[in-house]
């Protein structure tokens, strides 16, 4: 028996009834979780299973025998003999009244809202058959805040549930969003009411992932893609990040973590893309450069620990919060941006297409990728390497717009040559994946020996900070992996004060890594992240090539075009620089 099972067996059980149905649950269980065991969904808005209890909205109010007032199901623990009723007249009247109050102060342009048909408030109003508010409207027109390439805020749709605040503060440790005002005038806003990009915000999009309405969403670029696809003069290519293929199926009724690579490629072809390529190819390229850079720093006295630079939210964080540590960041671009550079240089030569006719589109799990693509460092000769970035959610919109029956689509393969990738590239989508992919190559390059085992279990899993020590060619190498910026801060404070014991550190900004990115399907939870993580490792296990340096197309690319890693054309195209960002409220 495991320790976890033993602990569960030691927890006293509580007997209660919910809607007259007997139930036994462990002591400490909240009413809402107890009801879920019976298949009863108690309505809620502020509650989120991965966040600490807020009990703000009170929609989850239930009647408990012996209590004069209704109790919040999200925050009330069950007790022995408790009798709960979730469907009495007073409970229903209370819930309807609360929804009516929200609607009276809500911008009700549902048809034009990005979250139309995927909105918790809309879903609850439909459930309670509320077609319009019976209360006088107190709504005040408020403009949408569109000041950066990644995140759009619409205060008129905010229901003040606090989910975004908790995601920013508790998960990321940033607190760029907060409450301001009092009573009926309370609002969710930023520090000093500044645009998000001028605050501590790093545009990770975790706020948009937990928002129950359309108050915080990604900047929608689907129309740009549709326009490009309809332009006969343009050759439109698309790259897809590894974590998208294990998240996309969520929106089409498939089990969380379903691997839908083949259907996804077919859908992109049916949308009209001329070529469908794989960002995993860019991930293999990143390992070639980042691995070579790490070895160079180790052997030639470079700045250590070296920090990965694949996650744009993480890079933004270092630039804003740890500017003096920028020399520790790898100069290697992210897989998306490396792919973009090759797509605008090598690919036009191979395909015989004028680079000015090529439009590069990236499908990413991340809102911050939109900001990364817009950075002037990520282009040359007046052109950006990546022209348009869509989140997974935006791709879902396009697939539904065209009317594809996604779950019935046949499977097809990525196009060549930039669609060939290794298993190492696939695991880039999960926390620890970049480190593991790098170690597979670094270990073999430094020792000249083939690894007997490719799985580095110590850097896998959902623990906030993971570490391991390796003996590589007689040299001990200490590595660490962190996901979420709250955990990253712990490691960065060590780097900043010179006490870090590590040689190489991987950080991903979002919980679980890219599988939990801010642009993934609404409904992404920690439980869902775990299933996506397992799916990426399954993809890795089944691929014939599992090491980036053994990708034959990567080998040809270096032989015929790039030369050696870290040098010449490879350094010019695949590396970049970063700089400290001064926030406007700093003095």
Explain what you see:
The protein has three domains: 3-87, Roll (Ubiquitin-like (UB roll)); 99-218, Alpha-Beta Plaits; 222-574, 3-Layer(aba) Sandwich (Rossmann fold), CATH 3.40.50.1780. The chain is built from 20 helices and 19 strands. It has helices spanning 3-10, 31-37, 89-104, 120-127, 163-171, 206-210, 222-230, 261-271, 279-300, 312-321, 335-343, 346-351, 368-374, 392-402, 423-426, 433-447, 485-496, 526-542, 552-562, 568-574, and strands at residues 13-18, 21-26, 61-64, 71-72, 83-85, 151-153, 177-180, 187-190, 216-218, 235-240, 275-278, 306-307, 358-364, 379-380, 383-384, 388-391, 465-472, 475-483, 504-508. The strands form six sheets. A five-stranded mixed beta sheet has the order 2-1-5-3-4, sandwiched between helices. It has a four-stranded parallel beta sheet with strand order 11-10-13-16, sandwiched between helices. The longest helix has 22 residues, at 279-300. The model has no long low-confidence stretch (mean pLDDT 95).
What's the gist of this structure?
With about 575 residues, the chain is of the alpha/beta class. The chain has 20 helices and 19 strands. Helix 9 packs across helix 11 and helix 9 packs across helix 16 (about 435-445).
């Amino acid at each position: 028996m495991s320790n976890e099972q033993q602990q569960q067996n030691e927890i006293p059980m509580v007997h209660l009834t919910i809607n007259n149905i007997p139930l036994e649950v462990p002591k400490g269980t909240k009413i809402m979780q107890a009801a879920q065991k019976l298949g009863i969904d108690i309505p809620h808005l502020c509650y989120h299973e991965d966040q600490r209890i807020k009990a703000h909205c009170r929609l989850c109010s239930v009647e408990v025998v012996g209590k004069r007032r209704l109790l919040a199901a999200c925050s009330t623990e069950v007790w022995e003999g408790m009798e709960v009723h979730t469907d009495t007249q007073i409970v229903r009247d209370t819930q309807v009244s609360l929804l009516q109050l929200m609607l009276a102060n809500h911008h009700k342009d549902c048809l034009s809202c990005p979250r139309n048909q995927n909105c918790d408030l809309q879903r609850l109003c439909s459930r309670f058959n509320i077609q319009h508010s019976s209360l006088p409207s107190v709504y005040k027109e408020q403009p949408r805040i569109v000041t950066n390439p990644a995140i759009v805020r619409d205060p008129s749709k905010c229901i003040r549930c606090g989910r975004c605040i908790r995601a920013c503060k508790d998960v990321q440790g940033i607190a760029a969003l907060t409450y301001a005002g009092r009573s009926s005038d309370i609002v969710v806003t930023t520090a000093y009411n500044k645009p998000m990009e001028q605050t501590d915000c790093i545009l990770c999009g975790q706020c948009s992932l937990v928002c129950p309405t359309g108050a915080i969403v990604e900047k929608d670029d689907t129309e740009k893609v549709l326009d490009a696809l309809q332009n006969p003069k343009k050759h439109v290519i698309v790259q897809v990040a590894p974590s998208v293929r294990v998240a996309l199926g969520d929106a089409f009724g498939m089990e969380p973590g379903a691997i839908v690579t083949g259907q996804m490629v077919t859908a992109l072809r049916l949308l009209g893309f001329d070529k469908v390529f794989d960002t995993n190819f860019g991930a293999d390229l990143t390992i070639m450069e980042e691995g070579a850079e790490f070895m160079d720093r180790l052997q030639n006295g470079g700045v250590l620990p070296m920090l990965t630079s694949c996650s744009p939210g993480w890079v933004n964080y270092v630039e804003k919060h740890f500017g003096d540590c920028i020399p520790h960041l790898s100069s290697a671009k992210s897989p998306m941006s490396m792919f973009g550079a090759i797509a605008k240089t090598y690919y036009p030569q191979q395909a015989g297409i004028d680079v000015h006719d090529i439009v590069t589109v990236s499908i990413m799990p991340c809102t911050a990728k939109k900001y990364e693509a817009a950075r002037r460092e990520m282009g040359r000769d007046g052109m950006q390497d990546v022209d348009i970035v869509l989140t997974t959610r935006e791709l879902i919109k396009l697939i539904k717009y065209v009317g594809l029956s996604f779950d019935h689509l046949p499977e097809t393969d990525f196009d060549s040559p930039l669609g060939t990738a290794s298993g190492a590239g696939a695991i880039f989508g999960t926390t620890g994946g970049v480190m593991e992919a790098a170690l597979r190559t670094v270990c073999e390059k430094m020792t000249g020996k083939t690894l007997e085992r490719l799985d580095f279990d110590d850097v896998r899993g959902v623990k906030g900070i993971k570490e391991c020590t390796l003996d590589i060619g007689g040299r001990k190498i200490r590595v660490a992996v962190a996901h979420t910026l709250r955990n990253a801060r712990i490691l960065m404070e060590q780097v900043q004060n010179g006490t870090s014991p590590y040689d190489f550190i991987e950080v991903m900004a979002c919980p679980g890594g890219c599988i939990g990115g801010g642009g993934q399907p609404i409904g992404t939870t920690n439980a869902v992240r775990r299933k996506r993580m397992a799916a990426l490792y399954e993809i890795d296990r089944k691929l014939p090539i599992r090491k980036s340096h053994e990708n034959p197309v990567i080998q040809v690319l270096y032989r015929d075009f790039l030369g050696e890693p870290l040098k010449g054309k490879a350094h010019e195209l695949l590396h970049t620089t970063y700089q400290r960002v001064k926030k406007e409220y700093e003095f």
